[in-house]
Design goal:
Number of strands: 4
Radius of gyration: 18 Å
CATH class: Alpha Beta
Order of helices and strands: EHEEEHH
Number of helices: 3
Shape: elongated
Distance between the termini: 43 Å
CATH superfamily: Ribosome hibernation promotion factor-like
Strand order of the largest sheet: 1-2-3-4
Largest sheet: 4 strands, mixed
Strand content: 25-35%
Length: 119
């Protein structure tokens, strides 16, 4: 899974990039083979003025399914990253289940329904 992390309005640190990659790893690991690319934009809209303006925008491009795009805004950038990663994981799950419901059901241990008369 290719993850591109970019910062707007401040310098990217190793700790921040590592946090983003770790949280996305938790949220998207089970679908790694179905993900083409993940783009993450982190920013501070107001700069030094402060306020609830730090954002995390995540875009996940999937193989044979609609892309998932999520944005979260918070006063704490780490909180915005955590919430956005959790939400994008749920959206990716939903998009992949809609596109390939039988394949994903088998992946999660569900058995196909049987006809009563075939027993």
């Amino acid at each position: 899974m290719i993850v591109d992390v970019h910062a707007q309005g401040f310098a990217m640190t190793q700790a921040l990039a590592g946090h983003v990659r770790r949280r996305l790893g938790f949220a998207l690991a089970r679908h790694g083979d179905r993900i083409q690319r993940v783009g993450v934009r982190l920013g501070d809209e107001n700069g030094p003025r402060g306020g609830v303006d730090k954002f995390c925008r995540i875009q996940v491009r999937l193989v044979d399914a609609p892309a998932a795009v999520i944005e979260d805004v918070s006063a704490d950038l780490y909180a915005a990253i955590d919430r956005a990663a959790e939400r994008v994981g749920r959206v990716v799950d939903r998009n992949l289940q809609r596109t390939h419901p039988v394949r994903d059901a088998a992946r999660h241990g569900a058995r196909p329904a049987r006809d009563r008369h075939s027993l």
